[in-house]
């Protein structure tokens, strides 16, 4: 990675902290001969004025979708336990849309709505029923609408196939083999000061810390295919390095070879999406994903470079929007080009 590129990314992050768009950031830049890890700033304002350091736990939000759920789906495909054309109804018998395919869920073209408006008024039972009975708002495969519902379903399908809880499943098949020892759902026995705080929510007792921020995941006991994972910069950097280096770690092929083939297959590139991942440029192998809390992972498979950036941009309120634009700027420097598809 050119030093000029590194400097530009570092400047964006430092200036965002100076402007109070974010209070701090934990980030890594990964290349063939480098693994720069930096912790700059604090967990929060004067109430949470703890300097960022290695080992601190971030709520990954939707980055959970690619780190956990998508990876496990690719493993199941490689093991012939699932296919992209498998249908939801083959695994979940009580849904109102049994013909939606796995590829529709991964590409966010299932026909399901993006989210529910009133999740804070729901119970766990009500949310589960609402997901399973949600109406299709468009024909599956006809257009792209990013939806958490797709990944809630994928999490349930993984559990149905493997017959163990999702938290145990992802740990056994992904995180333990990769030595990602601090990546988990609903972490416990960890000092509260090790958790990066997220948003103030009155109905949850104030600043959320050490518990999942996403309310649907919260209702689902902190464990879902769409959100809920906590992790550290070290663990995500490890994930990225193995991903970029062909998927093998300790002589075990963690990321199956078919994953790389399918991610690069133009048949499964619709709008700005590949299977599970977002595409920065649909003609190149530039993958990325972000999380509502302020997290992001970017992987350039064409030149084996990665960029992890962890912030809590919603602290203490989601009204702080400045980092969203600055994050895109930092990603444009990392990928060395402006985003192809504008949102």
DSSP strand count: 13
Major sheet details: 6 strands, antiparallel
Shape verdict: globular
What's the SSE pattern? HEEEHHHHHEEEHEHEEHEEEEH
Helix content: 25-40%
* Content-based structural category: alpha+beta
Descriptive report:
With 343 residues, the protein is α+β, with helices and mostly antiparallel strands. It contains ten helices and 13 strands. The strands form four sheets. A six-stranded antiparallel sheet has the order 2-1-13-12-11-10, sandwiched between helices. Helix 1 (3-18) runs antiparallel to helix 10 (322-335) and helix 2 (63-78) crosses helix 5 (148-162). It is globular. The mean pLDDT is 96.
Topology:
Layout lengths: L2 H16 L5 E8 L2 E8 L16 E2 L3 H16 L23 H5 L17 H9 L15 H15 L3 H10 L8 E2 L14 E2 L4 E2 L7 H5 L9 E3 L1 H12 L3 E2 L2 E2 L3 H8 L13 E2 L6 E5 L4 E6 L4 E6 L11 H14 L8
Antiparallel strand pairs: 1-2, 1-13, 3-7, 4-7, 5-6, 8-9, 10-11, 11-12, 12-13
Please tag this protein with its features.
three-stranded antiparallel beta sheet; six-stranded antiparallel beta sheet; alpha+beta; 10 helices; 343 residues; single chain
């Amino acid at each position: 990675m050119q030093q000029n590129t590194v400097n530009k990314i570092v400047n964006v992050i430092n200036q965002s902290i100076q402007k109070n768009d974010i209070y701090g950031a934990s980030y890594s830049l990964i290349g063939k001969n480098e693994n720069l890890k930096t912790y700059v700033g604090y967990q929060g304002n004067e109430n949470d004025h703890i300097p960022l350091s290695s080992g601190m736990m971030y709520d990954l939000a939707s980055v959970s979708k690619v780190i956990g759920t998508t990876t496990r789906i690719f493993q199941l495909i490689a093991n012939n336990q699932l296919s992209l054309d498998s249908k939801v109804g083959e695994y979940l018998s009580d849904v109102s849309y049994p013909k939606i395919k796995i590829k529709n869920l991964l590409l966010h073209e299932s026909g399901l709505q993006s989210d529910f408006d009133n999740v804070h008024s729901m119970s766990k039972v009500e949310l589960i029923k609402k997901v399973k009975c949600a109406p299709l708002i468009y024909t599956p495969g006809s257009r792209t609408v990013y939806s958490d519902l797709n990944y809630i379903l994928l999490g349930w399908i993984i559990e149905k196939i493997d017959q163990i809880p999702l938290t145990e499943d992802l740990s056994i098949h992904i995180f333990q083999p990769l030595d990602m020892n601090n990546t988990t759902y609903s972490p416990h026995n960890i000092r509260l000061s090790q958790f990066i705080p997220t948003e103030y929510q009155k109905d949850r007792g104030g600043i959320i810390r050490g518990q999942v921020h996403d309310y649907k995941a919260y209702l689902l006991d902190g464990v879902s295919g769409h959100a809920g994972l906590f992790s550290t910069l070290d663990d995500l950097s490890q994930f990225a390095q193995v991903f970029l280096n062909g998927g093998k770690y300790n002589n075990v092929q963690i990321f199956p070879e078919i994953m790389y083939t399918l991610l690069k297959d133009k048949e499964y590139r619709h709008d700005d999406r590949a299977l599970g991942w977002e595409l920065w440029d649909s003609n190149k192998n530039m993958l990325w994903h972000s999380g509502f809390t302020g997290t992001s992972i970017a992987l350039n498979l064409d030149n084996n470079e990665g960029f992890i950036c962890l912030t809590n941009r919603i602290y203490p309120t989601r009204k702080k929007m400045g980092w969203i634009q600055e994050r895109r700027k930092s990603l444009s420097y990392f990928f060395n080009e402006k985003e192809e598809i504008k949102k």
